[in-house]
Design goal:
MetI-like fold, mainly alpha, globular
Length: about 300
């Protein structure tokens, strides 16, 4: 078990390094001049060239890349924002709480609702409950997230006045953003749970459990659901990572000062350190979630435990 976790941690480090190189390379080749964005539009070319030299933007690609990797992974300094003149890591830590809260709450609620709907649909196959669950899942998956968020603001904030439309002032401010994020995830989890459950309830051990006189609830919860959780856990982990990176649109619509909106502003300003830092932090969080999922695999399924304990 410990050896398996160590392997996954080493892979996590490799993935984070690869993401760092990719995001640096993309920011290096895109159009735009950060020095021109920092200075006024009336700045002279001499001032722009001087600022580029000061920021190290005129150095060759490999020199900038090595400097970035050394600064990030050896000195643990992502850099200073061109726009705010503040350390990027400090600004991200001030904002990541909003993003993590929305991602965590929406993923948790989506997991509970999705598993429940999936179990109900699987145990009532071809009934009106199953058909309703399938229809709602397809509808929610097909619905654009930004459109749904705008509809929520229009109905519950502007027309009914029940919830605040913008900003984060209290716990009520998280309701609409979380609902906007969880709809699609609930549908995906419900579909995966239904599919996995249908495969398990036809297995011989379920027939044996029924023959022994076990109740339907016990068979579903202790046998079928537990054994069908592996693919569902994968979907849940992917959903959380998607929420971290995909909260950009929701944060923009609801004016939430999270990492997503911070990165969007940084992209428009050509604030390379802020963009690289935001992507790197999200990649680390996502990789940590994937590592946690791999550990949960071993805890949920004894076959995984036996396989990796023997390594």
């Amino acid at each position: 078990m410990a050896k398996y976790i160590l392997k996954r941690v080493l892979w996590l480090i490799v993935i984070v390094l690869a993401v760092s190189v990719v995001i640096f390379s993309l920011m290096f080749i895109i159009d735009g001049d950060p020095a021109r964005s920092i200075l006024s539009v009336n700045a002279s070319q001499e001032d722009i060239d001087a600022l580029r030299d000061k920021l190290g933007l005129n150095d060759p690609y490999w020199v900038q890349l090595v400097r970035f990797l050394k600064q990030t992974f050896l000195e643990f300094d992502i850099g200073t924002s061109y726009r705010t003149r503040k350390p990027v890591l400090t600004e991200i830590f001030e904002r990541i709480g909003y993003t993590l809260t929305i991602a965590s709450v929406s993923t948790f609620v989506a997991t509970v609702l999705g598993i429940y709907l999936g179990v109900v649909a699987a145990t009532n196959q071809y009934s009106w409950k199953d058909n309703t669950a399938i229809f709602l899942s397809l509808f929610c998956v097909s619905m654009p997230e930004f459109w749904f968020a705008l509809m929520l603001v229009s109905i519950f904030a502007l027309q009914l006045g029940w919830l605040p439309p913008l900003g984060i002032d209290s716990w009520k401010s998280y309701i609409l953003p979380c609902i906007s994020c969880l709809v699609g995830g609930t549908a995906n989890i419900a579909r995966q749970t239904r599919s996995s459950m249908l495969g398990e309830i036809r297995q011989d051990y379920i027939t044996t459990a029924k023959a022994k006189g076990q109740t339907k609830e016990k068979i579903i919860t202790r046998h079928a659901l537990k054994n069908s959780l592996i693919p569902v856990i994968t979907v849940i982990g992917s959903l959380f990572g998607t929420q971290l990176g995909g909260s950009v649109v929701v944060e923009q619509i609801f004016s939430i000062p999270g990492v997503g909106s911070y990165m969007m502003t940084a992209i428009g300003f050509r604030d390379y350190p802020a963009v690289r830092g935001g992507v790197l932090v999200i990649a680390i969080c996502f990789s940590a979630v994937i590592l946690l999922i791999d550990i949960v695999y071993v805890l949920v399924d004894p076959r995984f435990s036996e396989r990796y304990n023997n390594q």
